[in-house]
């Protein structure tokens, strides 16, 4: 199933599209969908709203989306929520899932295969915030638009 747009931020004609929310269900190529949604969101912010968004910021945002959505799919039941929003000179990527347990970064181990997603996000994001919610948790990563 295709991702379901919840709110594209265009409730007032001509208003900037500074926020988008999606629900990713359990069918299909959800990681690729999430990456495409993030790139399209930033492309719209650049083209339609005139925001300065570097190509590197788009790449980093796609990487962060990929890692956070992958972890949500791997460790949480049910659909995954993806919110993208521009806040000042940054994009905030918010991933919501049904598992209330916060992720834990593991100690660095170059011999470990896999399970480096949270470490990657922490290395490339300006900030990372994890919050418990009534039905799980949300993880917010902040990425500079000029990265």
From TrEMBL:
Which InterPro entries does the UniProt entry name for this protein?
A: Anti-sigma-factor_SerPK, HATPase_C_sf, HATPase_dom
Identify the taxonomic lineage of the organism of origin: Bacteria, Bacillati, Actinomycetota, Actinomycetes, Kitasatosporales
Q: Where is the Histidine kinase/HSP90-like ATPase domain?
A: 33-142
UniProt keyword Kinase, yes or no: yes
Q: Which GO terms describe its molecular function?
A: protein serine/threonine kinase activity
Q: Keyword Kinase on this protein?
A: yes
Q: What is this protein's name?
A: Regulator
Q: What organism is the protein native to? A: Streptomyces caelestis
UniProt xrefs under Gene3D superfamilies: Histidine kinase-like ATPase, C-terminal domain
**A family per Pfam:** HATPase_c_2
Kindly state which keywords UniProt assigns to this record, in alphabetical order: Kinase, Serine/threonine-protein kinase, Transferase
């Amino acid at each position: 199933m295709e991702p379901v747009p919840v709110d594209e931020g265009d409730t007032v004609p001509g208003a900037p599209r500074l926020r988008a929310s999606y629900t990713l269900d359990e069918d299909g190529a959800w990681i690729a969908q999430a990456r495409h949604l993030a790139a399209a969101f930033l492309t719209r912010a650049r083209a339609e709203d005139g925001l300065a968004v570097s190509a590197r910021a788009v790449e980093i945002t796609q990487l962060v989306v990929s890692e956070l959505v992958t972890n949500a799919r791997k460790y949480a039941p049910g659909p995954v929520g993806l919110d993208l929003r521009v806040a000042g000179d940054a994009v905030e990527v918010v991933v919501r899932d049904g598992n209330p347990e916060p992720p834990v970064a593991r100690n660095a181990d170059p011999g470990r295969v896999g399970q480096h997603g949270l470490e990657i996000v922490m290395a490339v994001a300006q900030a990372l915030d994890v919050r418990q919610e009534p039905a799980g948790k949300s993880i917010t990563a902040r990425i500079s638009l000029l990265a």
